[in-house]
Amino acid sequence: MDLLPFILACIIIELTPGPNMAYLIILTMSVGKRAGLATVAGVAVGLGCVAIAAAVGMAEVVAAYPPVYEVIRWAGVLYLLWLAVDCWRNGAQADSRPDETGLTYFRHGFVVNILNPKAAAFYLAVLPAYLPPAYKMWQAVVLVGVSLSIATVMHLLLVVFAATLRPWVDRPER
Fold first, then answer.
1. CB-based contacts of 21: which residues, under 8 Å, 6+ apart?
2. pLDDT digits over 18-65, tens only?
3. Cα–Cα 20 to 30 A to 151, which of 19, 123, 157, 165?
4. Rounded to two decimals, what is the model's pTM?
5. What is the C-alpha separation between 131 and 2, in angstroms, rounded?
6. Are 21 and 157 within 8 A, CB to CB?
């Protein structure tokens, strides 16, 4: 198992804009670093679930039944639209919403990634391509661990970057 090409693929995937990148930056800049970090944890768990599903054969199910992927994809689109409408409706009170806890942000990150079409496409199409035909489960676990580590580091960097810019963007004159 050659890890370098897989690592490069993971980095390229994480550098391309997607639902995680947009959501983490907007959330951190509007609500704060604590919310962003809780969401990163949810994202990691959600990505892990999608990755494990792919590693244990979900890719074959999706290949045999393409409507399954479409259902996942459109459910993700609808959930992101719901989050956008919710943020738009409650944007003015974003910092003072007492019902929003770390668990709420964790849940949003988790659900966004269970339904993330970019994550599903990566883990259902790309991950199996890096596994040998008669792979052992530990090989899939290694690839999942590598991809989750890279994704989580990138997401943490996004949250730190957005939190650093937040005071500058929050100035009323801007």
1. 158
2. 878 888 998 898 889 999 999 999 999 999 998 888 777 776 777 788
3. 165
4. 0.78
5. 9
6. no
Whether 3 contacts 71, CB under 8 Å: no
Burial class (CB in 10 A: 0-12, 13-18, 19+), 41: middle
Confidence (pLDDT) at 91:
57
Which helix (DSSP H) or strand (DSSP E) does residue 119 occupy? helix 117-121
Two tokens, residue 75: 């459910």
Q: What is the pLDDT of residue 71?
A: 83
Scanning the structure block, which residue is given the tokens 């892990």?
Answer: 48
Q: Could you give the CA distance from residue 42 to residue 112 in angstroms, rounded to a whole number?
A: 9
Q: Which amino acid is at 20?
A: N
For the chain, percent of residues with pLDDT exceeding 70: 90
Place of tokens 């970057």: 161
- Mean pLDDT for the chain overall: 83
Q: 């004159």: which residue's tokens?
A: 173
CA 107 centroid distance within chain? 12
CA 18, CA 4: separation in Å to the nearest integer? Answer: 23
8 Å CB contact between 35 and 100? yes
Q: How far apart are CA 105 and CA 90, in angstroms?
A: 15
